[in-house]
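hi support,

uploading two proteins for the ticket. first:
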Amino acid sequence: MIYPVIRNNNLNGEKLNIKSVKICGECIELAERVFADSSIDTNGDFLIEIEISNTRKTTYIEEISKITDEKYLLNVTEKGVTVTASCEKGVFRALNTLCKLINKNELKTGECEDYPLFSTRGYIEGFYGKTWENEKRVSVMRLMAKYGMNTYFYAPKDDIYHREKWRDTYPETEYESLRMLFNEAKGNFLSFNWCVGPGLSYKYTSQEDFDLLINKFKSIYDMGVKGFGLLLDDIPWEFQYEEDANAFEGIVDAHVKLVNDTYNALKAIDSEIKLAVCPTQYSGDENGYYVSKFGKGIPSDVNMFWTGEEICSRVLTVRESQELLRSTDHRPLFWDNFPVNDCEMFQEMHLGALIGRDKDLYKACEGLISNVMEYAECSKIPLMTIADYLWNPVDYNPDNSLKNAHTEILGEKSEKFGYFADHLGVSCLSKYSSAFMSEKLSHINFLLSQGKTEQGFEEFKEYNQNMRECLVMLQDEGEPLFGELKKWTKKFGMCCDLLDAIYNAKKDPTDDNMKALAELTEKYNSDGTILTGFCLREMAEKTIGLY
């Protein structure tokens, strides 16, 4: 199976073993690029014919009663494939699906009709911490475009020109870097949205500050950007200037005026400009005074970010979406704080799959934007599961999606990587981790308690050996993902040492083995990096008789 899962898939006929293709029809240059990126030769005989057809069949999604430019049709015969879409973006989606089918040897004759259920699907660099290098940004962009995301928000908290120096335009080098990023997004059919967060020092009664703000937007617009974000999150709830306090009844009134004035100024520049805003209250009570007045006070076509019941929400539901709409006249654009691991979560590594989001959420929101980690390579794994969910939440399977993400990133190394990834599931979505280890250690304890010592110790030895082999693999600095995981790999090494010590103490409970186990247990527990679940500590402490 390929991911995201195709919506209406009737490609269930004869299996075709395709090694190379021949492209004809429209969008040939785009097709050659997509096939080249997927290492598929385009000098073959299997015909890929591309047709542009702007009809109801290629543009309308019944489930959400919306027109889309991302729907496509595939008709596969023994001689070739006809790709039909309304525009280049739809063709791009189709070709990426086709390349996955060919590379996985899953292309069969028949027909399919595919389209996304969430309209806005993407991610935001909105974390606190070291900003990504552009090389990493491009790598993530291309992967997310391949998996069907269509939106990118640029808003790194530690970009000084985003918050601290919001009044200043970008210097030439940084400006050209942003331009390159915008062009890359455009080439991968990602809507590029540049955001600014002026609220730490903005004076709401200052015409000069407002002019500087619009000038900053205008400078980014001049490179071709038409998507903007005004972020008022994580700023003081009280006025910082006496003039502001005298001019407005409350902070929400100042924010409503700022959004409306910004909206009107941007629309005067170009009516096609789109604006998204993040209110200062962006989570919690959907009926709160601030968010209700804020939402009802700003234009209806301004997208409003919302993180859910919590800043990092375990669940996102249709119910809360409907309640926010009733309260604010705005369907939420979810700012999903997963997989981000900044602030108090810095000891965690969030490599699990997306869970806890309603399958019908697409019916009640504008879309979902995932906030990523400062670790770009690590972010790819959960982002791929998020992309799968956003395209087709009805058929989304988090376990299968996560396995696919491991394979996409690591290839043959993915199976061994699972011994490590088993311990990196703790996040706002779940406080449980190490499911495989817990099951394995419980089974080993059962065998030992039933007198099946030889089998128990043999399985224990095998498990420890696999963990060690995984540790050796993780120390390969040539793999970009492993380079970002050094902190957790170090703790994983302690885990392997502790497992060996438990094995030795259970098999031969001498004073020396018990002492070594006690020392390693203390060392492991004193390291604050979050790795394995309770099961390892429990087994270690039971072995040395702490309880």
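and the second one:
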Amino acid sequence: MMNMFLPRHERHDASIPTTDGHPSATSISQRRSAGGAALSSLGLALALTLTAAAPTPVHAARGPGEIADVADQVVDAVVNISATTTEQVRNFRTPGDSQNTPFDDLFDDFFNRKRQGQGDAPQPPRMRKSNSLGSGFVVDPSGVVITNNHVVGEATDIEVIFTDGSKLKAEVVGKDAKIDLAVLRVKPDKPLKAVKFGDSEKMRIGQWVMAVGNPFGLGGSVTAGIISARHRNIDSGSYDDYLQTDAAINRGNSGGPLFNLEGEVIGINTAILSPTGGSIGIGFAIPSNLARPVLDQLTQFGEVRRGWLGVQIQNVDESIAETLGLGKARGALVAGVDDRGPAKPAGIKKGDVIVKFNGDEVKESRDLPRMVAATPVGKAVEVVVIRDGKETPVNVTLGRLQDEKVAALTPPQNDTTALKKALGLDLSPLTDDLRRRYSIKDGVKGAVITGVDPNSTAADKRLQPGDVIVEIGQQPVSSPSDVAKLLDNLKKDGKKSALLYVANAQGDMRYVALSME
């Protein structure tokens, strides 16, 4: 029996031979009746079968053929980054001991004192060098190189290694930990091969892409795949908006480019999801459209100057959307307004839902910080909010975001469930005794929560004794009777949920929607 093995995607149906390798019954009958002619026919049939089963070109199965052409065009612009960091080694440990304990400083002092007691001078700290390898790419022939911030870190010595083996020392022009980008500069003797950025917003799910980098120190490695998803949030920061790809990305690929088939950089490879440390086909790249404004500012100023609105926001779930009459969950709910920020004088208020910013729709709360940060400082923008069920435009001139002004994004709340009793809360007037018991700030006023039904949605929403209900339905409350009255009014209006504005003991505010059914 002869078996013919082909890749599964290259196998073809054939009448001869059958699955067991023998000629079909039809062929045998024809051979008996036609004698030698049947043998000739069989030979012709076999020839046709072998022709039909000929393998298709490999590139047709694995991707478009022009990937090789793209690789030829761009590979010389992709570089390896070697970053060396010098760090102090603990004196009391041996060079091979890499463990750190809470007693490190204590042991250092002890051994230093012991040496001094024996007449020995204090030993100078021993220094150790550690190296990390990553990837990068040239965007300017004069010597501008892009990589990830985490590739260079706090390195004291950075070297850029090119495909021909040549090496150049690099200096850091600027870096940004929030987006994880860094701009380096080298001084070449002649213009370098450089690549250009493309438009990441034009990339569609399923389109072919190519990654080039230095995985595991294997410089110049090319892998291909597709865009698996867009706008991925991997909880790495406030500005997550990653492209997901199944092109193989491994350790050492960080900072390398993700190309479209035009040879344009549409992403910067940054992270992988892997239980093993190796590629399992889930990699993430910073989109070029998100990276370019940051890189331009790093190149120009050596730092990033982000816009600042001055609001605290939280997600809008279905319950909150129902209480505010939004129709569906959308936008970013303003849970607080910074007294020093530009939003307050512009007229933005807590309880507003921001649904548009500078002409772009805010689909969910995490969209807003990215939009604001990408807008130039001092620019006047129109912000559309929903207030009292109506869309209201507000003009705001953005300030500059400082590190201490990073707006907090209140964690999303869990879905509501039916309550066993009204709201699932025990309430009390906010007396001086309760204020002292729960350490509630003086400026906080309302009805204090003294108990929470553990089986209620209030417990699911992390309400706890010591929290103070300041408003219900955007109406202020000062006692449990106010709460009961406002709940009755909401029920009469056909509302199924109540929107509570709640302060914790520290005075931090948030909105919580609770079912009244």
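thanks. also noticed: The longest helix spans residues 36-52.
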